[in-house]
Amino acid sequence: MYNTLTRKIEEFEPLDPPFVKMYHCGITPYSESHIGHLRSEVAVDILRRTLRFLGYIDIAISNFTDIDDKIIKRAREENINWEEIPKRYIKYHLEAVKEINNLPFYINPKVTEHMNDIVNFVKDLINKEFAYNGKYGIYFEVDKFEDYGKLSGRKGTESWRQEDDVIEDKKKPYDFALWKFRKPEEPYWKTEIGEGRPGWHIECSTMSSKYLGEQFDIHSGGQDLIFPHHENEIAQSEARFGKKPWVKYWFHIGYVMIEGEKMSKSLGNIIPAKEFIKKVGPMEARFYLISTHYRDPLDIKEESIEQYKENYRYISSTIKTIKTILESLDRTYYLNDKETEIWRNILNYHKEFINAILNDLDTTKAT
User: Fold this and answer.
1) Domain CATH number, residue 249
2) Are residues 355 and 218 in the same domain?
3) Number of domains the chain contains
4) Cα–Cα dist 54/81, whole Å
5) Residue 303 lies in a domain
6) pLDDT category, 104, cuts 50, 70, 90?
7) Mind listing the pLDDT tens digit for each residue in 107-119?
8) What whole-number distance in Å separates Cα of residue 144 and Cα of residue 307?
9) Listing from the earlier edge strand, what are the strands of the sheet with 131-133?
């Protein structure tokens, strides 16, 4: 499989076989999950099924970021309690992925249920002198972590900044928030490190390490998360635990485009997950989402959707026909030439399919 960390395809060797520990960056449930989320989770589902085929036992978890600026903003717009927003959209998301036959995750941890764990993580970073207090929050000092940038290729000293609204509060523009102190009229938690709520990056490091340990096998998510989110996760996790690499394999899924344009709210071309499933069909939608290699962009086009719907129906029909033929074979005699040819073709197709999937999940060749 391709490893973003090493930038090459590697033989998969788990840390503690036959177990494979996996963490997938889930959604921030402030609106309906969309086809980009579906594509990402289908790719991870194919990976999990492949691991099971190879005899591994996958322990896969995926989080919900159920407290976030976008959630607070949405609640204000609807004039409701902020907690109602994530409840609504977590339910929507779980229903959508179930429709397309994804395996359920071992657990879906929520940020709001892990505040004590997050606080302990931040305290450890402060004690190890990787974090410092500011006026508006507690920050990770990027310059203290020498390996910063090894996932994305970007360094802390490059001209970029994180959380511009508090730039004057940090030692360097590229330091990032571990804990944000309380703001008026926003949700907050009373803790040993102050009243407030966690930064985005610390949440995933905390939840993954709680359930999977200080080192694990696979971390997945969209390519848009490589920087800064996953880069920051590595920094704070390796700083705390002192184990390198914190994650052995990084699995990133490509972007989704709509008719050649990037999918975005500003362009108004977001397609909600359930809307897409209803229009295309559950299994047809799943088949379409793997029509392009998981690392490549997937360009959603009306004509290609129709073509893949036909392809899926053809494959389904062919499988049914093959089953009927196999069930009708007379197994009390040696196979005749025609029957031998049928078996040979089936075995060849099966071999080609397996080889394609085992080569970095090449679903384009497999289908």
Assistant:
1) 3.40.50.620
2) no
3) 2
4) 46
5) no
6) very high
7) 999 999 999 999 9
8) 53
9) 131-133, 137-140, 176-181, 196-198
